[in-house]
C-alpha cells in the first residue's frame, strides 16, 4: 500500500488530460439533457439584420465545395477503443434548408458547406477526403504510389477515410507523408496508415516543418487540464447536435475523440524555401512558422499548378488566440506569410488551384490571388487597427466594440468570424503587446469573483431587486448586460435557481445570435451547466499511448513540476533520481528531481555528463524504470504495486522519501466550475 499511495499520481493517468480534447478518447458517461428554448424576437431581428447585409444565397462556395465529387462519404458511425461512439455523421442530417430561428444564418451557411463530405478530385491525380474529421486528408498520386498529406486526428477516422479512398482509387501504396503543421488533427491518425517499422523498412519520407515534434507535444502538456476544460466549452462537448445545440465549429463539423498517434519525421523543412522530389513528384516547400501554428509549412506542386496553404489559409477568420487557451499568435507574421504566398502565386500565371487543410479549394489564378490578398489584409487590419487604437488610449473591450472590418472585406464569407472573431482577435493582439492589464488602476488588483459578486449584489439592493431589474433588461433583449449582472448574482448565490435560469436563457439567446461556432458552443455549454449540471467526461489515456511514447522525457518533467502543491511542500527539501532504461535494459536517460522552497526543479544528467548512468549521489532515492513502462503506468495499463520487485522497475534508497516526494504532487481537476463558483 505504501507504493500505491506514493504513486497515486500515476493511478490517475497524469497525461490523460494534457493533450486537450483532440489527443484523447472520451466517454461522455453522463446523460446529456439540454433544455431547448425558442429564439426571442430580438434574436430573430438580430439574425435577420445580419442576413440582409450578406449575400446568403451566393452559390460560389457551394459549387467549389461540390466540385470534383467522386463519391459522397458514407453515413458512418465510429467508436473508440472502449466502444464509445465518437462520430455519427447522421447526427448532422438536420443541417439542410433555410436557417432555423435558433441559428445565426451566416453560421448555418457555413455549417451546410462543412456538411459536404466525400472524396473529391481537385485535379487529376490530386484528391481530398473532406468531412471525415475536422481537417482534410489530401492524396497526391506519385510514380509508385501515393503521398498522404495530413492523415487526420485519429486512427479511427484516418482508417475509415483511407478505406473509402481505396474503394474508388484502388489500392493506395504510401510513398510519402507530409505533416503540414503541429496540430493533432493533421497527424494523429498516422499509425492507422503506417507504423514506424514500415516507414523505416520502405524508406518512406515523413516530411514536417522544423520543430514539429517539440511543438506537437508541448503546446498543451503544461497547461493541459485547464485547456481541456475550456476546450470542452469551445467545442460544445456536452451539447447534442441540433438546431438548439452544436451545429458546427466553423472550421469543420466537430472535434473527433479517438486514438491519436505520432511518428518522428524523417525529413525536416527548415529553410524558407526548400525543393524536394518525393517518388518522382517535385514539391516546393515553404517554412512558415509562428502564425496559425508554431511549426507549419506550405507547399507548391508544379505538376498540378496547385498550392497547399495548410491552415494558414482557410475559409474563415481564424483565431489569433484560441478560446480554449494557448499562447497568442502573431497576427502580423500571419499576414506576412499570406502575403508571401500571394506574391509567389501572383508571379506564376499558371498557378490556378489553392487547396488547404480545412474546407474546400479555390480555383482560378485571379480568384486565388484576390482571396489571399483579402486574408492578408484581414489579419493586418486586425493587427494595425488594434495597435492604433491602443496607442490613443482605448482598452481591449473598447477596441473590440469599435472595430469593424472595412466594407471591402466584411462581405466576403471566407473572412467571416466563424471560428475566430474580430472581437476576440483584437483582444488577442492587445494581449500580445500589452498583456492582461488595461492601464486603469481599478483593474490592477480587483477583488476575486465571489468576493466581488457579494458586494455587487449588496450594492444592487439584494438578490430579489437584482433579478427584477435583470428581467427588465432581459425583456429588452439586452442579453450581454443581463449576463454580466446575473453572473455576479450566481457567483454570490450559486443555489439561486431563478438567477441561474435567467442567466441560462440570456446565454442561449446570445448563442442563437452568434456567428462564430465556438461562441455559440461556449454560450450553450454555459447554459447547459447552469441548468443541467457539469457534464462528467472521463478520458481514456490509453487511446493516446502511441502519442505519449513519442513525448520527450523533459516534457514529462515539466508537467510534474506544475503539479507540485506549493503549500504542502512548504519547508520540504527532497531529491530523487529517475533512471530510464532502453528496450535492451540499459539506462540511457537519467533525471534528478529536487524540491526546495516549494519549487520542483529537474536536471537531465545525461545532457551534462558523458555517463548515461550518472545520477545524483545526494538523492534520497532512485527509481529505475523503462520509458515504455513509465508510459504504461501513466495511462493506467500497469500498476506499480504489481511491479515492485520485478526486473522492470526498481527502487534504491529511502522508500519513505520517495513516498513523501510524490505525495506532494497534486491531482489536476479537468472538470472545475466555470459558470459557477
Automatic annotation (TrEMBL):
Domain of life of the organism encoding this protein: Bacteria
Metallo-beta-lactamase domain segment(s): 134-358
PROSITE patterns membership: PROKAR_LIPOPROTEIN (PS51257)
Membrane spanning residue stretches: none
Molecular function as annotated in GO: linear primary-alkylsulfatase activity; metal ion binding; protein dimerization activity
Signal peptide: 1-25
A Pfam family the protein falls into: Alkyl_sulf_dimr
Key words, A-Z: Hydrolase, Metal-binding, Signal, Zinc
InterPro entries: Alkyl/aryl-sulf_dimr_sf, Alkyl_sulf_C, Alkyl_sulf_dimr, Bact_Alkyl/Aryl-Sulfatase, Bds1/SdsA1_MBL-fold, Metallo-B-lactamas, RibonucZ/Hydroxyglut_hydro, SCP2_sterol-bd_dom_sf
Any one GO biological process: dodecyl sulfate metabolic process
UniProt record similarity statement: Belongs to the metallo-beta-lactamase superfamily. Type III sulfatase family.
Name the UniProt record assigns to this protein: Alkyl sulfatase
Species name: gamma proteobacterium HTCC2207
Amino acid at each position: 500500500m505504501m507504493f500505491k499511495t506514493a504513486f497515486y499520481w500515476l493511478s490517475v493517468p497524469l497525461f490523460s488530460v494534457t493533450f486537450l480534447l483532440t489527443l484523447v478518447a472520451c466517454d461522455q458517461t453522463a446523460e446529456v439533457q439540454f433544455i431547448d428554448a425558442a429564439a426571442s424576437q430580438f434574436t430573430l431581428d438580430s439574425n435577420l439584420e445580419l442576413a440582409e447585409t450578406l449575400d446568403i444565397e451566393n452559390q460560389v462556395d457551394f459549387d467549389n465545395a461540390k466540385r470534383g465529387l467522386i463519391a459522397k462519404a458514407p453515413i458512418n458511425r465510429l467508436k473508440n477503443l472502449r466502444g464509445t461512439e465518437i462520430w455519427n455523421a447522421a447526427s448532422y442530417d438536420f443541417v439542410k434548408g433555410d436557417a432555423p430561428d435558433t441559428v445565426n444564418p451566416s453560421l448555418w451557411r457555413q455549417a451546410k458547406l462543412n456538411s459536404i463530405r466525400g472524396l473529391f478530385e481537385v485535379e487529376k491525380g490530386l484528391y481530398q477526403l473532406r468531412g471525415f474529421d475536422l481537417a482534410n486528408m489530401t492524396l497526391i498520386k506519385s510514380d509508385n504510389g501515393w503521398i498522404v498529406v495530413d492523415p487526420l486526428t485519429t486512427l479511427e477516422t484516418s482508417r475509415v477515410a483511407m478505406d473509402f479512398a481505396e474503394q474508388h482509387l484502388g489500392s493506395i501504396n504510401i510513398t510519402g507523408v507530409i505533416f503540414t503543421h503541429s496540430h493533432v488533427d493533421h497527424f494523429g491518425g498516422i499509425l492507422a496508415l503506417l507504423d514506424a517499422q514500415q516507414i523505416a523498412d520502405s524508406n518512406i519520407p515523413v516530411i514536417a516543418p522544423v520543430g514539429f515534434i517539440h511543438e506537437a507535444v508541448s503546446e498543451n502538456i503544461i497547461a493541459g487540464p485547464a485547456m481541456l476544460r475550456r476546450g470542452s466549452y469551445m467545442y460544445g462537448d456536452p451539447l447534442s447536435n441540433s438546431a438548439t445545440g452544436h451545429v458546427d465549429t466553423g472550421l469543420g463539423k466537430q472535434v473527433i475523440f479517438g486514438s491519436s498517434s505520432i511518428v518522428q519525421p524523417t525529413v525536416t523543412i527548415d529553410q524558407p524555401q526548400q525543393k524536394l522530389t518525393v517518388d518522382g513528384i517535385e514539391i516546393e516547400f515553404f517554412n512558415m512558422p509562428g502564425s496559425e501554428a508554431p511549426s507549419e509549412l506550405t507547399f507548391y506542386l508544379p505538376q498540378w499548378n496547385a498550392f497547399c496553404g495548410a491552415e494558414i489559409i482557410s475559409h474563415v477568420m481564424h483565431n489569433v488566440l484560441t478560446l480554449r487557451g494557448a499562447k497568442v499568435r502573431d497576427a502580423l507574421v500571419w499576414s506576412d506569410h499570406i502575403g508571401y504566398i500571394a506574391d509567389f502565386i501572383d508571379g506564376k500565371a499558371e498557378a490556378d488551384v489553392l487547396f488547404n487543410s480545412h474546407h474546400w479549394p479555390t480555383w482560378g489564378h485571379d480568384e486565388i490571388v484576390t482571396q489571399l490578398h483579402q486574408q492578408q489584409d484581414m489579419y493586418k487590419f486586425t493587427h494595425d487597427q488594434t495597435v492604433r487604437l491602443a496607442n490613443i488610449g482605448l482598452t481591449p473591450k473598447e477596441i473590440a466594440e469599435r472595430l469593424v472590418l472595412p466594407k471591402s472585406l466584411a462581405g466576403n464569407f471566407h473572412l467571416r468570424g466563424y471560428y475566430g472573431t474580430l472581437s476576440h482577435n483584437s483582444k488577442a493582439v492587445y494581449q500580445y503587446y500589452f498583456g492582461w492589464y488595461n492601464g486603469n488602476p481599478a483593474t490592477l488588483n480587483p477583488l476575486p469573483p465571489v468576493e466581488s459578486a457579494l458586494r455587487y449584489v449588496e450594492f444592487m439592493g439584494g438578490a430579489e431587486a437584482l433579478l427584477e431589474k435583470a428581467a427588465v433588461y432581459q425583456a429588452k433583449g439586452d442579453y450581454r448586460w443581463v449576463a454580466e449582472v446575473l453572473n455576479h448574482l450566481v457567483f454570490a448565490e450559486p443555489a439561486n435557481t431563478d438567477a441561474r435560469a435567467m442567466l441560462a436563457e440570456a446565454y442561449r439567446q446570445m448563442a442563437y445570435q452568434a456567428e462564430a461556432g465556438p461562441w455559440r458552443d461556449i454560450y450553450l455549454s454555459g447554459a447547459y451547466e447552469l441548468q443541467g449540471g457539469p457534464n462528467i467526461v472521463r478520458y481514456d489515456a490509453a487511446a493516446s499511448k502511441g502519442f505519449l511514447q513519442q513525448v520527450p522525457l523533459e516534457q514529462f518533467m515539466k508537467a510534474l513540476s506544475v503539479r507540485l502543491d506549493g503549500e504542502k511542500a512548504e519547508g520540504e527539501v527532497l531529491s530523487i533520481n529517475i533512471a530510464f532504461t532502453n528496450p535492451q535494459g540499459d539506462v540511457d536517460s537519467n533525471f534528478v528531481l529536487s524540491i526546495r522552497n516549494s519549487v520542483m526543479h529537474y536536471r537531465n544528467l545525461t545532457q551534462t555528463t558523458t555517463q548515461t548512468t550518472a545520477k545524483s549521489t545526494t538523492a534520497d532515492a532512485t527509481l529505475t524504470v523503462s520509458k515504455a513502462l513509465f508510459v504504461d503506468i501513466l495511462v493506467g495499463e500497469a500498476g506499480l504495486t504489481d511491479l515492485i520487485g520485478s526486473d522492470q522497475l526498481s527502487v534504491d534508497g529511502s522508500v519513505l522519501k520517495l513516498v513523501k516526494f510524490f505525495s506532494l504532487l497534486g491531482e489536476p481537476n479537468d472538470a472545475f466550475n466555470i459558470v459557477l463558483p
